[in-house]
Design a protein that fits this description.
It is a single chain. The protein has about 230 residues and is α/β, with parallel strands linked by helices. It contains eight helices and seven strands, in the order αααβαβααββαβαββ. The chain has a seven-stranded mixed beta sheet with strand order 3-2-1-4-5-7-6. The longest helix has 15 residues. The radius of gyration is 16 Å and the shape is globular. The termini are far apart. The chain binds S-adenosylmethionine. S-adenosylmethionine binds next to β2. This is S-adenosyl-L-methionine-dependent methyltransferase. It comes from Schizopora paradoxa. Keywords: Methyltransferase, Phosphoprotein, S-adenosyl-L-methionine, Transferase.
Length: about 230
């Protein structure tokens, strides 16, 4: 299975390789995937659905003019760089793999969005599930993080989102891949009730739509869903 149209030709092989690393090493398998350049998900640009989300009318998502944003499982940081470029926010990309964070910093330093602007952006190597920042976030953005973690960790994902988003803040999800009951992963198949079940009742869904622009193999498998913390 593939995660994007711009996938490398040996995509299926790479997915299997990453699964093998994770089967052998647990979560440390992600760092091995970065070491081996087995990055089947790495499509080289920010998500168009994120661009759409950050241009929404304030009647849908009313972000404060300044604030803090978090991107867990940020990978090479395309989306974190975009957020820090688009908003005057302190933006943190975090990834379990130190190698991912080095690659993300290199991308931030060399990409047009990063190098032409002084971004308030940093990359933290660490485990989302044990992350305890001093301040909470105005929004957290999840794309291909929920699908990367074993389904048994989803309740912990929900608990951590509840801890880390400020009251009145937002969780922006690009729910993907919506593959029904396809077994196996990562990427594990997701569905919208799975997010809601672990977030609990302290959230209001303020948007749930197919993004305006979905390309390649993401077509039919992605929704932009935004929750507001009550
Ligand atoms: C499928 S990749 C997606 C990367 C990025 N969101 C993108 O779309 O390019 C999942 C990323 O999550 C990271 N990751 C996995 N478990 C994590 C954890 N517990 N805490 C933080 N990052 C984690 C992996 O190292 C990997 O870079």
């Amino acid at each position: 299975m593939v995660m994007d149209a711009l996938a490398k030709p040996n995509e299926n092989e790479t997915v299997l390789k990453v699964r093998q690393f994770i089967a052998e090493r647990g979560a440390d398998g992600w760092d091995k995937a970065w070491e081996e350049d087995a990055l089947f998900w790495d499509n080289g640009y920010e998500q168009k659905a994120l661009v759409e989300a950050l241009e929404l009318d304030s009647s849908v998502m009313n972000l404060p003019p300044k604030g803090r944003a978090l991107v867990p499982g940020c990978g090479r940081g395309y989306d974190a760089v975009y957020i820090a470029h688009k908003l005057p926010y302190t933006t943190i990309g975090m990834d379990l793999s130190p190698k991912a964070c080095v690659a993300a910093q290199q991308y931030a330093d060399s990409s047009p969005l990063g190098k032409q602007n002084k971004l308030d952006l940093s990359f933290v190597a660490g485990d989302f599930f044990t992350y305890n920042p001093e301040e909470k976030f105005d929004f957290i953005y999840d794309y291909t993080f929920f699908c990367a973690i074993p389904p048994a960790l989803r309740p912990d994902w929900g608990k951590k989102m509840n801890e880390l988003v400020k009251p009145g803040g937002y969780l922006i999800t690009l729910a993907f891949p919506l593959d029904g009951d396809r077994p196996g992963g990562p990427p594990y198949s997701v569905n919208l009730p799975a997010y809601v079940a672990v977030l609990g009742s302290d959230w209001e869904k303020v948007l749930d739509k197919i993004p305006n622009e979905v390309i390649g193999t993401s077509v039919g498998r992605m929704r932009l869903v935004i929750y507001k913390k009550l």
